[in-house]
Structures are given as C-alpha cells and as structure tokens.
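Good morning C.,

I know you're traveling, so I'll keep this short. The sequence:
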Amino acid sequence: MAFDGLFTRAMVHELQNQILGGRINKIHQPSKNEILLQIRANGKNHKLLISAHSSYARVQLTNETTHNPSEAPMFCMLLRKHLEGYFVEQIEQPGLERIIRFVIKGRNEIGDLSYKHLIVELMGKHSNIFLVDPSRVMILDCLKHVPPSMNRVRTLLPGHPYLPVPEQNKMNPLTTEINCDLDQVVSQYAGLSPTFVKNLTNVQALNNYLVQAINHQYTPALMKCNGKEIFYLWPFSNATEIKQFSQLSLLLDRYYFGKAARDRVKQQTNDFEKVLENEKAKNELKLKKLVKQLQETEKADTYKKYGELLTANLYQLTKGMKSATVIDYYHEEQPEISIPLAIQKTPNENAQHYFAKYQKLRKSVQHIHEQTRITEEEITYLDTILQQLLSASPQDLEEIREELAEQKYLRMRTNRKKKKTNKPQLERYLSSDGTEILVGKNNLQNEYLTMKLASKRQIWFHVKDLPGSHVVIRSDEASETAITEAATIAAYFSKARESANVAVDYTQIAHVKKPAGAKPGYVIYDRQQTIYVTPSEDFIINIRARGEK
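The tokens, ready to paste straight into the viewer:
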C-alpha cells in the first residue's frame, strides 16, 4: 500500500494548509465505507473524503462528484448530530502511524464548548473511522464494529474505551539515522511501506527522500513500476509513464478515478450480475446446440437419396435386413452404396422413414436460423448490459435494474416507488473547441438521447460491432476535433476500452433507427463513416472536467 505513514504525514500537512479552522457544513455517507465532509475554509468550499475501504482506504480532498443515498445510514446521522456546524481545530498524526486524528470543536445543544475526535485508521482491511469523546476517551460509534470475540486486544464498539493501535516499537526514520540494509528497513523503521522501499536503489536514495520529507518537499507522482501503476510522494528512478501533480489530493483523485465508484457499483450489482452471467452462459450453450442442429440439417439431402434408392430397389429387399447395398444412380460413376436399415421395419417403411427425416430436417432449417438470430441478439443484449455495469455510476443502476425487471430477468421490487417521469440524466462533456457532447450510460439513457433528445442532423457515435454507449455531438456542424473526441468517448465507454485503434462508426441521427420489437438500446444505422481512435482515462478525466464547469 502506497498510503504509508510517510504519505499520511504529507497528507496531514496538506490538509492543515487547506482546511484547518474550517467549518463542517454537511456530512454524507456515499457508501458503507466512505464519509464525505463538506468544509468551508479559507473562503472556499472543500470536500473531505474519508474512506475505510479495505483496498481504497485514504483521506483526501476531492473534486469528484458522489451520489448520496436518499436515507443517511445511522453512522452518518450520528456524525451529523455531533459534528455539523463544528470547526476543525487540529489535524494530527501519532508518530508515523497510518492514523489521522481530527480535533473538532464546537458548542453543543446547551451552548457549552464541546470537543470530539474523528479518528481515521488507514490499515487495509482493518481500516476504520471512529467518533470519540476525548473527555472520556470513549467510542461514541465507529464505522466497523469489532466485538471481543473477533479481537481480544481492542473492542471496537460504542461505549467502549478507544484504545490506540498497539505500538510496533519501530524507529522514526525522520529522527533516527538509517544504518541498515534496504531489506531490513521496513522491519526496523516506521512509516515506510514495502512498495516505497523496494523501488529504491540504495539507502542513500532513501535518505535523500527523507530529507525532502522533513522539509515537506514533495513531487506527487503517478507512475508505473514493473508494469504496475502506483502513486507516491515522489517519482522513483526506475519508474515509467510518470505523471506529476501539484497536490496529493489531485494525485489520489486521478489514481482512484472510477475505481471506488466501480467498487460501489460492484457491491450493488452482485445479485443481478450473476443472473446476467448465467443467462449469457445458457444462451451460449443454446447457440452451440443450434449450430450442431444446423450441421445435422446438411444430411437432409442424404436421407432423401436413401429413401429414393430404397424405393427404386424394393423388389430385391426383405424385412429383417440390417443394410441394403444398392447402386448409387446419383453418382456419376454409379458405385455401390450401403444404406442402414431398421430390421423391424419393412423395406418400404425404411424408405418412408428416411423421407420423414428429410422433411423434418428441411422444415427445421428456417426455425433453427430464426432461433439462432434470437439467441445471438440475446447474447449481444446481455453483453451490452454487462458492459454498462463496468462504467455505470451508482445513480445509473436503478435504471438498469428497472430495465432488467421489465425484460423479466429480475423480479419487480414489491416496495418500489412509483416510476419517476424525470428525464434520464446524461453525462456531459465539452470538446476542445467547446462543442457539447452527451453520453448515454445505459439503455434508457441511450434511447432517450438517440430517439428523443438529439435532432436529425446531429452526429451519433457507437463503437463498431461491440457493446457500447450512444454518444451524440449536440451541434449540426461538428468540427474534426469534436468528431475525434466524441469517437474517443464512445470507444472509452465500450467493450474496447482497453484497446488501441478502436473502430468507431458515426452518422447523422436521421440514419439511426430502432427496429420494431427490438431489445432496449438496440438500433440499426447506415450511411456511416468509421474513425479509429485510442481511448484513455486521462483524456476522459480532462474532457469531463470541462463539461462539469
């Protein structure tokens, strides 16, 4: 984990410069592991994100937009009761631990001065957030409850004393000279992660970084080391694809872009994602059987020939024969051919049996082709929904869930509220030349954008021959720049997101049609042109930021 004790120290310093003395105006809990505090400080509004996620635990200021549930969880309600309207008086880190303590000051209901501690422990799967009454050193509540049966050292429950994390008795590298080999540093010195140390060349390089840390001199960087994307306070000498940032929070926004949101979506889609995967597997198996049946129909002409040859040779056949060897009059060289017979049937019954198989197979061809078409469309539809889940925001999920219920993949929720008549909310982007670009993230949004909102002369984009979003340039006269950037957005929000030179088709809305009876989101189009682009997350971040301004 790159969010080690040294990184925590740097983040505390950044937060002290940004929000110290600020007033907590609002508190939200976007997901079960995240808390968002809106703080007014230094004449600006700041969003402080605190995450106790097992993989994404962090504390940072964020510019990302989060979706908040309609009903706040109990922990969020408690934080609102004790912290809203209060001020951030201190932000502290004990030693070089991955712990941040916010000292919050305000006045309670009767006007008396009151202090609370909001303590964040950033320790992987053991990460937690505590609201503590410092006068009694008592836990008022915590995000994750841990009873004595799970941890005999620390009971993490409301009403119990807050006990500090057990000390590891390691030396502080900022105050103690490092005089051991690199492979011993992590075990002897606090605050240094294995990720940081293993990317150093020698102890001298470590000491150089520590001097910069003492003076709070950082160059936050996102980079690749040994093929893996990591972030830290400085770029490493062995790193490639280095991107530098002016603030730690900007770095974390970039690194965690989409990751935390996708995780929130994953938590909410586990139930019906398995349903979709199972349905897709069943349809793929059905398609294999249809292909096999179609191959069987190729024998129809053979069965017809068997029947005709048997009919022509009835005079020399008798009941009980296992096979009939006759001249194949349909072959130029007229060789002998052996035809299997059912011993319980007469020669004529055997001939009629082959004629019946011929007729059955001939009639089944059309049915098999129709079933193959339906099954392939079903697989494409399921692929489209699964792809939409990969890029869906939490607010997109309810629309997808409703669609799946209408398509009989899921049961309708018995307690669901009356369907809203509000228009779908589309993601908005601005191209480099200021042209508005809209994106549909699910089939409801796609159909609204393509069939209702966009005008006939506006240009429509979709990745070629793969599941993906509908993208529309909201202008009758689109520049080459806008076309390229809209195509890049369409490639990013598709199954080809990780590919290079992605083919994207584009045409005017007038040439996009929805066939009668087609699945939601399915369209056909013509008079298209194709452009090849390479999607990238950095591009999406930049163009989305312009659209949100």
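Safe travels,
E.
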